[in-house]
Amino acid sequence: MKNNLTLSIFLFPIFLGCSERSKQTHKIDPRLSPKDFLESLEPDSIPKIFLPDVVSTGLHEHNGILSPEMDRLYYTVSDTNFTNFRVLQMPLKSNLKDMPTIASFSGEYTDHAVSFSPDGNVMYFSSTRPQRNLQDWDLWYSNKTDSSWNAPQKMSGSVNTNLWESHASVTRHGSIYFQANYDGGGYNFDIYVTHEENNTYKASEKLSSAVNSELIEATPFIAPDESYIIFTSYNRADGYGDADLYISFKNENKQWTTAMNMGPTVNSVFEESNPNVSADGAYFFFSSKRVLDDQKGQNTFGNGSMDVYWMKADIIEQLRTKIMD
C-alpha cells in the first residue's frame, strides 16, 4: 500500500494541473464516437504526442495501447526512477471529463505493459506480483467478463521463470512473443516466442539473428497474423539514438527478414520503444523520450521522460514494400 500511495501522491498534482489545461486545449464535439474522436485528433504520418497534458505528462508514460474495441487507452506510468509502475486507463470520450485512472487490476502491485489477444477476450500484462522484485517480472492474464475483467492469473507452464519475462504480444493462433533475459540476466534482453499446444505452452524459443543480436532487443509487438514484428533494439550501428524501433517481416519461406530500422520518421536521437498497433491496423503507438523545445527538466510532456506517441500505421506497409521488393 505504501508504494501505491507514493505513486498516487505523485500523480495527483500532475492530473490536477493537466485537467484544467486539457479543457482549454481540446475543444471537441462531445457527440463523437471513440473512433471519430480519434480521427478528430488528426493523426498524421508524422508522430505526435497522444493527448498531451492528459495522457503524456511529466512522468514516464509508455506502452500505450488501444483496447480491442478502441474505446479506451491503456498505458503504463512510472516514476522518474522506474521503481513504481502502474497501468492506467483513459476512456476515449470527446468531452475529456474523465481523466486517466488506475486500471481495476493494477495499483496494489508493480504492473506494466498491457496487451490483448486478437479476439479481445484476454488481457495480458507483466507484473512482479506478489513481490516487488524488479528483476523477476512474469506474464499474467485476465479473461474478459460481461462487464469487466476477472481476477488476474499467472501464466502456467514453462513461460514464467525466476528471471524476467515481460511485454507479451499474442497472435491469432495463440503464440506469445515476449522479452526475456535468459542469456546473462540483468538487462540482457532478447525476444522469445512460445507456442500453444494442447492448451499448454511449450518451451520458449529465441528468435533468430534476423531479429536478435548481441545487443538488447525488447518490447516486441507481433502482428496478429504473424506477418511482421516491431521491437526495440539498443545501440545498433544504424541507430539514430540510444534505442530505436526496428521491423522484420515473414518472407515466403516463413522466415524473418533481417530487421530494418524504421527510419527517422519514427526514430530520433532520443529513445523510442514499446510499439503497438491498433486492432484495426490504422494507428501506430510507441514511446519516446524526445525533448521538445525548452521543456527538458520541466514538469510537463516533452521533458525527456517517456511520452506516448502515435501516428498513422501506413509506414508499416511502406517498409514492407521496401524490404520485400
How far apart the termini lie comes to 55 Å
Class per helix and strand makeup: mainly beta
* Average pLDDT, all residues: 88
Q: What is the ordering of alpha helices and beta strands?
A: HHEEEEEEEEEEEEEEEEEEEEEEH
**Rg, Cα atoms, Å:** 19 Å
Beta-strand residue fraction? 25-35%
Number of separate helices: 3
Looking across the biggest beta sheet, what order are the strands in? 1-22-21-20
Number of strands: 22
* Biggest beta sheet summary: 4 strands, antiparallel
Q: Could you name the ranges where pLDDT drops below 50 across 5 or more consecutive residues?
A: 1-10, 12-25
CATH architecture: 6 Propeller
CATH homologous superfamily (4th level) name: TolB, C-terminal domain
Integer tally of domains:
1
CATH topology grouping? Neuraminidase
What percent of the residues sit in helical stretches (DSSP H or I)? 10-25%
CATH class, named Mainly Beta
Described by the principal axes of the CA atoms, the overall outline is: globular
Topology (elements, then pairings):
Elements (H helix, E strand, L loop, with lengths): L1 H24 L8 H7 L7 E2 L10 E7 L5 E7 L6 E7 L9 E2 L8 E6 L5 E6 L10 E6 L9 E2 L10 E6 L5 E5 L9 E5 L1 E2 L2 E2 L3 E2 L10 E6 L5 E7 L8 E7 L10 E2 L10 E6 L5 E6 L18 E6 L1 H11 L1
Antiparallel strand pairs: 1-22, 2-3, 3-4, 4-5, 6-7, 7-8, 8-9, 10-11, 11-12, 12-15, 13-14, 16-17, 17-18, 18-19, 20-21, 21-22
How would you describe this structure to a colleague?
By secondary structure, this protein is mainly β. It has one domain: TolB, C-terminal domain (Neuraminidase, 6 Propeller). It contains 3 helices and 22 strands. Strands 1-22-21-20 form a 4-stranded antiparallel sheet, with no helix packed on it.
